[in-house]
Amino acid sequence: MSLKKAAFAVRDNAYAPYSKFHVGAAIRAESGAVYVGCNVENAAYPEGTCAEAGAIAAMIAAGETRLSEVYVAAGGSKLITPCGGCRQKLAEFADGDVLVHMATISGLESTMRMDALLPGAFGAGHMEDTPE
Ligand code: THU
Questions:
Q1: pTM of this prediction?
Q2: What is the DSSP string of the chain?
Q3: What is the pLDDT of residues 102-113, one digit of tens each?
Q4: Which atom of ligand 1 is the closest one to the Cα of 41?
Q5: Which residue among 20, 21, 52, 102 has the greatest number of ligand 1 atoms within 8 angstroms of its CB, and so is best to mutate?
Q6: Where exactly are the structural domains of the chain?
Q7: What architecture (CATH level 2) is domain 3-117?
Q8: Which pLDDT tens digit goes with each residue over 62-72?
Q9: Is there an atom of ligand 1 within 6 Å of 52 CB?
């Protein structure tokens, strides 16, 4: 199954009774395996999680730590980009040249590099050589 199909398929399972904004994400890990996630909202609003976070959690649970491509599928008529928090979450596991595809059910599509979505990402390297 293509990354696009996987992202749209998992979007059908999104639990978004509050925003009604259903999102699906599919990640191809370096092994070639695809991991998916959808947004999961909660009556306590800040406890909700994004589709990207779910897909990352599935990848990590499967024992993989590097991703090579991302696809985010959402509703609405405007293209979405991953939220700020998800950009940082993705950047933890992606090189700058990783492509992040975004699409809507209305047919809009766009692609951006990871380092265009989050220039100057905070990374593990920033904590090297810190005395304490
Ligand atoms: N959402 C995602 O799952 N991914 C994004 O990239 C943007 C926003 C979710 C969070 C929330 O459940 C709903 O969309 C509205 O913000």
A1: 0.95
A2: --HHHHHHHHHTT-B-TTT---EEEEEEETTS-EEEEE-B--SSGGG-B-HHHHHHHHHHHTT---EEEEEEEE-SSS-----HHHHHHHHTT--TT-EEEEEETTS-EEEEEHHHHSTT---GGGGTT---
A3: 999 999 999 999
A4: 12
A5: 21
A6: 3-117
A7: 3-Layer(aba) Sandwich (3.40)
A8: 999 999 999 99
A9: yes
